[in-house]
């Protein structure tokens, strides 16, 4: 029995490890392989709960109920595509399951210790390999793409990202790896020299990413350590911790000089430190929450909120996230439901932090803290390979809550909610349905991916598109995205067809999609609406893109001669802001 548990745990760990290391990031779903592997890791661990009673923590019930929100939003037309509702609900149910797994593992001291040790080991292995890959990318050792490492072209300006495709995600993993090194050091499982070598190597990797998130993370570690170190009599002294952070600062300051000396690129540290492009997005989406619908714009539809605000508070940066998890929740769910979710989860996490008293929970919440800090600046929690491990660590901490909280604020009212024991049959049924859903989604995506690649080949060799298209029942958002890509705007479109075109363009507001919708409106005698879509293009992508799109529409107008009113007759600049590229208005 113990051998079986070890094998299952090892397979789950390998699945999670590979999700961080797999180099394949292709359209139409860039991280599909990594996402599937992270879910498989949770599925593999789940059968280990069947040898005892399965406790269903209250927070898992709350998150599972939240998983109904996307389905309800789709049913009422807030979310455009069933596929988005299915994917979001799957991620929320996956998070609830990961928390439940951690909670039940914590009930047994031996299982709890093995869980912490296993995850810390996986984090260290993944961090070390990823740092090695980052060094190869920085030094430009790879001459081209291979099956194990993503390739960065020389002098491209890209920062090393290992196989994540995103330097900030790599930095977050490495910070979690550093927390894991500290944990094993405190457990006397690695010696001082080995721990120091690992820490130096990983800090060098964090430096190479040039990510600003670890700067905030360093401050978090100091505060967390000042608060919690008194409970555990740590081996790591205050002086040593400050020395490690000082080393990180020195490496950051020396990176431009070293990079220039080795002639492996350029590093503009001052310009990078002064870039605050997220502030405009936060202002824009704050307005979207204030002025938007009470029940939100729908999960995964931040782009819809951005387009709604483009002419009110334009920001020339198309995004699918507000780059702040709290704002995302408010945009997706509206101020009422969003604030309820933020309050419940926030109080729960604060309660876990207040209760942390041993090495395990302090390590687990430190690792979680790095991801949450990143989540306040970007969107790592949108990736299952971060979301599910975070849920597992939070579940482990939740399972260790043994003493009552003395703070009235943090007590909330959890004690009044009865504990729930999940029947084995119910959990087994859930796992079977989950495995079936993952397999179904995987098969659909495989077909969509093949269709996408086939269309790319056709585009490169002939002007004639393929007549066949991939069918999908669940991944409707990706199916319709590909369908729009390989269709042309036409005259005499029905209102339903125009609405469908709008939904796809607003869900995926790339230049081609927004132009497609504007052209469809123009060809169907709706020049005013077409002009409004052109102003959205200008707000997101600038004057050059807008001018090119307008010229293409004029050429299309001359070819078809179907418009009753020429577009240019409706184009007049705002008298007060003639020179502002984002301040033109349409005057009838």
Automatic annotation (TrEMBL):
It is found in: Membrane. Residues 566-588 are annotated as: Disordered. Residues 160-185 form the Protein glycosylation ligase domain. Its main location: membrane. Residues 198-340 form the O-antigen ligase-related domain. Keywords: Membrane, Transmembrane, Transmembrane helix. The chain crosses the membrane at residues 7-24, 36-52, 59-82, 88-107, 114-135, 168-185, 238-258, 329-349, 361-377, 422-442. It is a multi-pass membrane protein. Residues 574-588 have a biased composition (Basic residues). Pfam families: PglL_A, Wzy_C, Wzy_C_2. The keyword Transmembrane applies. Residues 365-545 form the Virulence factor membrane-bound polymerase C-terminal domain. One of its GO terms (cellular component) is membrane. The keyword Membrane applies. Signal peptide: none annotated. This is Polymerase.
């Amino acid at each position: 029995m113990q051998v079986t548990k070890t094998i299952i745990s090892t397979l789950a760990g390998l699945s999670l490890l590979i999700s961080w290391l797999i180099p394949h990031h292709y359209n139409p779903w860039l991280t599909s392989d990594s996402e599937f592997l992270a879910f498989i890791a949770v599925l593999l661990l789940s059968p280990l709960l069947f040898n005892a009673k399965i406790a269903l923590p209250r927070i898992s019930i709350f998150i599972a109920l939240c998983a109904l929100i996307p389905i309800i939003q789709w049913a009422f037309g807030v979310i455009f595509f069933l596929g988005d509702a299915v994917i979001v609900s799957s991620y929320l149910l996956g998070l609830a399951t990961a928390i439940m797994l951690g909670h039940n593992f914590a009930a047994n001291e031996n299982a709890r210790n093995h869980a912490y040790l296993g995850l810390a080991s996986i984090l260290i292995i993944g961090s070390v390999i990823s740092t090695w890959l980052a060094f190869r990318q920085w030094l430009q050792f790879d001459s081209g793409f291979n099956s194990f490492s993503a390739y960065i072209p020389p002098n491209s300006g890209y920062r090393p990202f290992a196989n994540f495709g995103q330097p900030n995600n790599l930095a977050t993993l490495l910070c979690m790896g550093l927390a894991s090194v500290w944990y094993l050091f405190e457990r006397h499982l690695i010696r001082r020299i080995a721990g120091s070598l690992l820490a130096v190597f990983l800090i060098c990797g964090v430096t190479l990413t040039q990510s600003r998130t670890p700067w905030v993370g360093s401050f978090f570690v100091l505060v967390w350590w000042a608060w919690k170190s008194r409970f555990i009599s740590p081996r790591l002294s205050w002086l040593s911790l400050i020395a490690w952070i000082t080393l990180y600062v020195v490496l950051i300051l020396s990176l431009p000089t070293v990079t220039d000396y080795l002639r492996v690129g350029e590093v503009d540290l001052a310009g990078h430190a002064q870039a605050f492009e997220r502030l405009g997005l936060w202002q824009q989406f704050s307005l979207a929450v204030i002025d938007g619908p009470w029940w939100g714009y729908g999960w995964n539809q931040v782009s819809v909120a951005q387009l709604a605000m483009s002419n009110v508070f334009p920001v020339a940066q198309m995004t699918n996230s507000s780059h702040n998890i709290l704002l995302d929740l408010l945009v997706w769910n509206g101020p009422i439901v969003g604030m309820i979710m933020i309050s419940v989860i926030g109080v729960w996490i604060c309660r876990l932090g207040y209760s942390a008293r041993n090495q395990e929970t302090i390590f687990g919440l430190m690792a979680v803290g790095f991801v949450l800090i990143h989540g306040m600046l970007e969107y790592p929690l949108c990736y299952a390979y971060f979301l599910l491990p975070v849920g597992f660590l939070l579940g482990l901490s939740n399972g260790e809550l043994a003493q009552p909280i003395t703070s009235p604020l943090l007590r909330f009212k959890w004690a009044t909610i009865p504990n729930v024991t999940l029947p084995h049959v119910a959990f087994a049924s859930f796992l079977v349905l989950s495995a079936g859903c993952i397999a179904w989604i995987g098969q659909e995506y495989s077909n969509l991916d093949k269709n996408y690649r086939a269309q790319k080949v056709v585009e490169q060799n002939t002007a004639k598109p393929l007549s066949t298209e991939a069918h999908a029942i669940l991944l409707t958002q990706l199916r319709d995205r590909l369908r729009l890509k390989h269709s042309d705007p036409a005259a005499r479109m029905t209102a339903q067809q125009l609405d469908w075109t709008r939904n796809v363009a607003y869900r995926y507001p790339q230049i081609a999609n927004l132009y497609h919708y504007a052209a469809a409106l123009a060809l169907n005698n709706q020049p005013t609406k077409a002009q409004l879509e052109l102003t959205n293009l200008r707000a997101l992508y600038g004057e050059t893109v807008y001018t090119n799109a307008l010229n293409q529409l004029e050429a299309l107008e001359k070819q078809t001669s179907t418009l009753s009113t020429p577009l240019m007759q409706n184009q007049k600049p705002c008298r007060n802001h003639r020179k502002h590229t984002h301040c033109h208005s349409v005057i009838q």
